[in-house]
Amino acid sequence: MKILVTEDNTLLGKSIKQGLEEAGWIVDLAQDGAEGLYYIESCTYDVIILDWMLPKRSGIELLKDLRKMGREDPTIMITAKGAVIDRVEGLNGGADDYMVKPFEMIELIARINAVYRRKNSRGQAELTLGKLTLDVAKQKATVNGMPLELTIKEFDLLAALATKNNHLVKRSHLSNSLYELNSEPDSNSIDVLLARVRKKLLGSGIEIETLRGKGFILRVETPSP
């Protein structure tokens, strides 16, 4: 799962990033509104945290940009502005939740999990492909009802492919889903993950096909008549 944090306070931004990474999230950190817009235009996120008072472009402006794009990424506004009228403005602007500084990391994580669950309850929280079932909200996978033991990155890779079942998924899309934007993961890291996932899917009726130079396609094997 991937999250964007926009926060111009360097110390606070790094602290939030570290706390969320320790909780298992992949985190991009933007330190002003222009950088935040770049990230938003480059990736989709499971949750976006927007600081209201950002230089170059405010969090509320970024939120409006996001909604104008037709994007429904769940968003949490964080700000020192605690007046009711400010909260109303943030929520009316399209935010899913609103937090006033200072706050505890444990509360932020709880709010993130809540808006993430709401997102999946509105969409496709559970995906079944043949013998394979993915519970996206709980990050659990089963084959014929039996748990499939996956690491967080293995689950995210499988989910990215499964949600585009029978369609080509480019390597760049997988990389953006699994790693921080502009990071430089090992050149074969995705191939290593794929090899591990394929091994765990043996007997599941799920095949992940590699199209050299193009990307990957997840297919459900058709049972023989």
Unreliable spans: none
Strand content: 15-25%
| Domain module count | 2
What shape does the CA trace take? elongated
Physical arrangement of strands within the biggest beta sheet: 2-1-3-4-5
Q: What is the CATH architecture term of the largest domain?
A: 3-Layer(aba) Sandwich
- What's the CATH H-level homologous superfamily of the largest domain? Response regulator
Number of strands: 11
CA-to-CA gap between the ends? 38 Å
Strand-pairing-aware structural class? alpha/beta
- Mean model confidence by pLDDT: 85
What is the helical fraction, as a range of percent?
Answer: 40-55%
CATH class of the largest domain: Alpha Beta
Radius of gyration: 19 Å
Commentary on this structure:
- The protein is an alpha/beta fold and 225 residues long.
- It has two domains: 2-122, Rossmann fold (3-Layer(aba) Sandwich); 126-220, Orthogonal Bundle (Arc Repressor Mutant, subunit A).
- It is 40% helix and 22% strand.
- It has eight helices and eleven strands.
- It has helices at 10-22, 33-42, 59-68, 84-92, 105-122, 152-162, 171-178, 189-200; strands at 2-6, 26-30, 47-51, 75-79, 97-100, 126-129, 132-135, 140-143, 146-147, 206-211, 215-220.
- The strands form three sheets. The protein has a five-stranded parallel β-sheet, with helices on both faces.
- Helix 4 (84-92) links the parallel strand 4 and strand 5.
- Helix 6 (152-162) packs across helix 8.
